[in-house]
Amino acid sequence: MESLTVSQKMTQAKDFLPINGTDHIEFYVGNAKQAAHYYKTAFGFQSLAYAGPETGVRDRASYVLQQGKIRLVLTTPLNSKTAISEHIKIHGDGVKILALWVDDAYKAFEETVSRGGKVYMEPVTLKDNDGEVRMSGIYTYGETVHLFVERKNYAGLFLPCYKAWNSKYNPTDAGLLYVDHCVGNVGWGRMNPTIKWYEDVMGFVNILSFDDKQINTEYSALMSKVMSNGNGYVKFPINEPAEGKKKSQIEEYLDFYEGEGVQHIAVATNDIVTTVKELMARGVEFLDAPPNAYYEDLPNRVGKIDEDIAPLQELGILVDCDEEGYLLQLFTKPVEDRPTLFFEIIQRKGAQSFGAGNFKALFESIEREQAKRGNL
Ligand code: FE2
Question: In angstroms, what is the span from residue 13 Cα to ligand 1's centroid?
Answer without folding.
Answer: 21
